[in-house]
Amino acid sequence: MVRVVAAVLCALGLSAVAASPARADPTAGGDLQVAQTLGDRDLTFMLRRVTGLPGPLHVDVLTHRGTAAGTLRLGAVPTGVSADRAEGSSAGTTTSRASVRLGGTPGSYGAALDIDRAGPWELVVDDGSRTARIPFVVPGQATSPPELAVFGGFVTAGVLILVTLFVAVRVRRGAWVLLPAGGVVASLAVAVTAALLSASLPPPPQPGGQVDATNDNVTDPYAVVRPVTNDYSRPPVSLELGSYPAKAGERGTLRLSVTDGATGLPADDLVVHDGALMHLLVIGPTGELWHLHPIRTAPATYEVRLRLPAAGHYAVSAEFARLGGGVQQVRSATGLTVADGPAHNGPAHNGPAHNGPAHNGPAHNGPAHNGPAHNGPARGGSSHNGSARGGAPALPAELTPQGPGTRTIEGVPVRLSAPSPTAGEASTLTARIGDTPTLQPWLGMVGHMIVVGPLDKADATSPTRMGQAAQGAPVWAHAHSMGGDMSGHSAHDMRAAPAHDADAMGHGEAGGMEHGNADAMGHGDADAMEDGHETGKGDGHGAGTGSMSGLMPLNGDSPADETVAAYGPDASFVYTFSRPGYYRVWIQAERDSAILTVPYLLRVSPAGGAR
């Protein structure tokens, strides 16, 4: 009898443990990071994961050097549809509001919104002139069918054990005991089988990641019956540019429409990719680069505010990811042609926002630029005279592309090593930005590299034809650097390595320059450059400084955001140039809450060693 009681207690304990089903974490996944070029501000919104329902959604707004102070009004709007009409009746109605006061100092400014249900939502951001709508999904708690089977099997087994015990004590004939005992065995078999098979069953499609999110499939993704498939891809999209009547030096708004390539219908299913819904690249006639993040103002409709300084042609490309469709890079077939306007002799670009030769922001309207400082190559505090009538615009020295070597952008020494890039072979380009590991991850990466080419040398160096040349360039590429080496030793600490290891170390000969052009290109130390190529000598920047490895998650699945200044100073890129010729390269990284954009000109040699 004692043995029977002990067995019953063990079974009850086991069923009690199983009685707490393992539920999907409602906050599964990390924080959502979305960069937005909102008017004259370039902001990063951090949507912290919701830890319980109902509960708060914490929104942190990260500003950059030169961002204008002001107030943003935030709202949370449920957008999900449901088979239950009552449940979906509040879709499109703002259920929670808050405001954020942005200061003049770069940093994080937060607010909290109330979230009362799982499903698709929109974060509405209003700066008083325009409204951005950022879609996001709040996951629900759902128990999978295998978990239900395990739970039910163990609970049933526990109950039947009690029945078996009662029958064994009360009934004289032992044969009756076999009935509930058999039920115990069957229940345990169901539970164990479900537990073993659960690992082999395919998970349901992820709402908001593979299929469109609704209230129903977010709340219980297992309740929606779908054909089993591993292919959730969708057709490519078309990018249409709206008219841009603004002239050189004037503010204007560029509107973009995204349509399905198979049906022509609006494609309102872009998902956050590399920290933004859309990455817009604009290359101007002078070779300036704008890296912007248009705001979503309506389904499949985006807009960005610009102030293009020079008359001429601007090439436009967008990179985004469609729901279930993967990453796409779509180049506008037409680009933009900007007419000449009044001479633009505005104040010197000395605001922090001008940390990239790409205008660092859609509107150059003040000393501090008041705009998304990091949308273009570094201005470096130089005066920019736009497209003065009757002649080509004079570019500041920091906007002029140079070959590998050392130069200074915004007071920060930047050294590029690009050892003998050859067509068809993987090349390692290493940029040392500053001399301390204080780079901040921008758009989830330590560094970005934009590549356009191959180009005719005259076009690649022209102050008026670069936009038209980029429009027809065979290659547009966007590469990333996740961080430095894993050893904690910087590449510059390795200069004593044998000569035959130069390529592996990312140093050695800088094949992107022509012989004897070091002085003409205006860069390079006398000791570090000879005949247009790098020697093994250092430039004295950051000797002995370690380089932190790639971005590691700091909050569950959430990587470090821009508030963490602990990476670099090296940003390395591996890229294979498909053709020989001249390439324009822009390297971008965030340091001291400002985006530095450094323009380069590389010459890629033909395969086989010919130069």
From TrEMBL:
Signal peptide residue numbers: 1-24
Superkingdom field: Bacteria
Membrane-spanning segments: 148-169, 176-197
Keyword Nucleotide-binding on entry: no
Spans annotated as Disordered: 337-426, 502-546
Organism this protein belongs to: Streptomyces malaysiensis
Compositionally biased intervals (Basic and acidic residues): 522-540
UniProt entry keywords in alphabetical sequence: Membrane, Signal, Transmembrane, Transmembrane helix
Protein name: Secreted protein
